[in-house]
Amino acid sequence: MATNAISARVTALFLDVGGVMLTNGWDRKSREAAAKNFNLDLDDLNDRHRMTFDTYESGKLSLDEYLQRSVFYKDRPFTPEQFRSFMFTQSIAYPEMIDLIKGLKARYGLKIAVVNNEGRELNEYRIRAFYLNEFVDFFISSCFVHFRKPDADIWKIALDIAQVPREEVVYIDDRPMFVQVAEGLGLKGIVHNHKDVGATRNALAALGLVL
User: Fold this and answer.
1) What count of other Cβ atoms lies within 10 Å of the Cβ of residue 69?
2) Do the beta carbons of residue 167 and residue 183 sit within 8 Å?
3) How many whole angstroms from its chain centre is CA 189?
4) Cα distances (Å, whole numbers) of residue 127 to 75, 130, 137, 141
5) Could you tell me the strand order of the sheet in which 111-116 lies?
6) Mean pLDDT of the chain
7) pLDDT at 8
8) How do residues 70-108 score in pLDDT, each as one tens digit?
């Protein structure tokens, strides 16, 4: 767990989604499950995924185009709709973390912004299905702004939209490198482990956000 020293009160939380509030949207484990469920060659799926998924997350491909390149480049005994539905069902909430963020927002009047790498259709499904827009004020998603972490510009856009001083922002992500980039921009950082919400709760308390 990494945090910066307290230099100002906290007025905003910037959060990743996958690995923090929800499971990842379409990670290696999900692709392994898909390969097994649909009898696909996993190595081929992963190779094609690597070559095109960043472009999808950057908002430059639709989900249908991503699937055409990675799965439906040849005839399959299942439909794109069936595969899309399977992809969506891989998302599961981490309710303890969601409740923590909701509680801190209610108690301290925090601005909440999502800063995440995600393709549009998956991102919009997850926002709707898990009611993230009920407590998140801004979605600075790679598919919307066309920058992907670790590009520092995605955090700069989040700061511009949230209109809060960077020293008043805590950024929470499960990937240490992304936290380090945010800290390099002057944000406070917390590396989150979804199996240890208590550690994140304690790190936030050390920054003055006690629930």
Assistant:
1) 17
2) no
3) 15
4) 32, 6, 12, 11
5) 138-141, 111-116, 12-15, 169-173, 188-191
6) 96
7) 73
8) 999 999 999 999 999 999 999 999 999 999 999 999 999
- Are 207 and 6 contacting, i.e. CB atoms less than 8 angstroms apart? yes
45 close to 73: Cβ distance less than 8 angstroms: no
Give the residue among 171, 161, 175 at the shortest CA–CA distance from 207: 171
Q: Residues 19, 194: contact at Cβ < 8 Å?
A: yes
Considering the domain 28-89 in this protein, what is its CATH number? 1.10.150.240
Phi/psi-derived region of residue 209, left when phi > 0, alpha when psi is between -120 and 50, beta in every other case: beta
User: pTM score, two decimals?
Assistant: 0.93
Closest by CA position to 93, among listed 125, 118, 141, 61: 125
CA distance 161 to 115: 12
What tokens appear for 142 in the block? Answer: 């790679």
CATH number, domain 12-24+92-206, options 3.40.50.300, 3.40.50.1370, 3.30.70.260, 3.40.50.1000: 3.40.50.1000
Using alpha carbons, select from 126, 129, 208 the residue that is nearest to residue 141: 126
Q: pLDDT (tens digit, 9 = 90+) per residue, 12-57?
A: 999 999 999 999 999 999 999 999 999 999 999 999 999 999 999 9
User: Residues 143, 66: contact at Cβ < 8 Å?
Assistant: no
